[in-house]
Amino acid sequence: MKKRILNILESIGYTCIRFLSQIGNFFIFCISSIFWAIRPPWYFKQIHSQIIDIGYFSLPVVGLTTFFSGMVLALQTSIGFSEFNSESTVARVVLTSITKELGPVLTGLMVAGRVGAKMAAEIATMKVTEQIDALGTLGTRPMQYLIAPKLIASLICVPFLVLIGNTIGILGGYVIAIYKLDFNPDLYLYATIEHLYWIDVVQGLVKASIFGFLISMLSCYFGYNASRGAEGVGYATTSAVVTSSVMILTSTYIITALFFG
Amino acid sequence: MDQSYKKKKIEIRNLTKKFNEKIILKNINFDLYEGESLAIIGASGSGKSVLLKNIIGLLKPEAGSIKINNVETVNLSRSKRENLLLELGITFQHGALFDSLTIWENVIFKIQRINKLSKIDGQKLALDIIKNLGLGSDILNLYPSEISGGMQKRIAIARAISSDPSILLFDEPTSGLDPVTGSVIDELIVKSVKRLCASAITITHDMASVSRIADKVILIDDQTISWTGKPNEMLKSNNAKIQQFIKALNPKLFK
Ligand SMILES: Nc1ncnc2c1ncn2[C@@H]1O[C@H](COP(=O)(O)OP(=O)(O)OP(=O)(O)O)[C@@H](O)[C@H]1O
Ligand SMILES: [Mg+2]
Q: According to DSSP H, which parts of A38-147 are helical?
């Protein structure tokens, strides 16, 4: 009995230590990625193709999700506040929820699922097939050639995607408000502009940058530390997507509570 | 041949490598001189690839010293190691071609890092290199997954020798190739060593290759070097492991 309790304690302790050391390793990984991202040479071709991949090819899914979120927001709030001054209320709810929260979070989640998975799988495959080792023997630093462009591109693209997603989301709300709820377009637009505060947009963009950082770093980290063949690639991909998604939802709360609460 | 006047390119002393307390290599000692071609043989799992990875710094030995061009590489700083690696041409056992790049981009990858070439110049240069390996221009724009395994092997060799390195390290360059192509690769290794006055280490299971390319052979067995000698001495040796290795092939090769 005593032995069994000890065994359980031991495995709990082991898990905790492993978790802590993972966090430590991740932290070191982030620092060295930043270190390599800010010093030359910059691989512009790599950065460019990452920007196309992360920014351009994510547009459809980001647009689609934010558009429908804007629509459903308008619909739901109109049911709740149907009595008076609904134009202003609906416009305001749609605007603030999208710019502060839904725009960045939905965009982050979509990018994590689409791009994070791809980054992790690509790097993990290169790792287990020794391509990363080969890079090092061919006059190239893997961190600089592989990881830094992904970090740079994410930091550039995710805020842009969020801006575009915000606009489309608000448009979604507008479409429902005008065509389904029969609101007055002028009043609705006026209310939207009236309630557009730059601090809300900034809050969303700050979140977006942090999400972009988290997604690229977590995906690259899990990919870079992959082992054991095809299974390792699968494991890295799943871990990247799950961890990024959880981190996005956790950090959005922390950021709001700490800086904008 | 007296080699005392020749430069040592690689010197390994008392190298020990473990994985989680499991000893893979212990007390490895050998030298590689300028212009010398060394073959490493040994059973599967004996630690040949691990030895190579120690030399290029991908794995760190638990004990011992590895000198390349008289520079101690164990615990060498990152930037110094990067400089040293520029002199090495390496192929990995499984090719490790970059599968997001085309064949020609793979072949001149290292050269591109040093000075940028236009697409046309790059393709021309890549073609010059792969012609020597019996490959043609038709594959230049394909991706590694679109060419055969044997071709991949040869592209990996092309990539390794493209920058005219002074030390060549090949991990089973001819395994999986037909005998004719295999001998083409062997010839190429011999030619490269001559032309660049390079030194080479080739891991191989193929005794015919050994006789063609090597000036010196080492056998890794039971975690350490259990036999060293010239290829033609292998026949006369009464080392049991060597005998086993030769039994499998035509002894005429060693006449
Ligand atoms: N990263 C690693 N972690 C743990 N053990 C390893 C690792 N790499 C290799 N080994 C072990 O080291 C031993 C030697 O492996 P190595 O790849 O050097 O064999 P080899 O001589 O190249 O064999 P082959 O001729 O089949 O290529 C094997 O027992 C292997 O299990
Ligand atoms: Mg091997």
A: 44-51, 59-80, 86-96, 103-111, 117-128, 131-137, 142
Please tell me the distance from the alpha carbon of residue B135 to that of residue B127, in angstroms, as a whole number: 8
Class assignment of domain B8-254?
A: alpha beta
Q: What is the pLDDT of residues B193-216, one digit of tens each?
A: 888 788 999 999 888 888 888 989
Report pLDDT digits (tens) over A58-104: 999 999 999 999 999 998 888 776 666 677 888 888 999 999 889 99
Residues contacting residue A194 through CB under 8 Å, at least 6 positions apart: A88
B114: nearest CA partner in chain A: A139
Residue nearest atom 9 in ligand 1 by C-alpha distance: B50
Residue A132 belongs to domain spanning: 42-260
On whether any CB of chain B is under 8 Å from the CB of A140, the answer is yes
- How many structural domains comprise chain A? 1
Its pTM stands at: 0.88
Nearest residue on chain B to A128, judged by CA atoms? Answer: B96
Q: Give the three-state DSSP class for B15.
A: strand
Q: Is the CB of B53 under 6 A from ligand 1?
A: no
Say if A232 falls within a structural domain: yes
ipTM of the complex, rounded to two decimals: 0.86
Using the structure block, give the residue that is written with the tokens 């090949």.
B170
CB B229 within 8 A of CB B216: yes
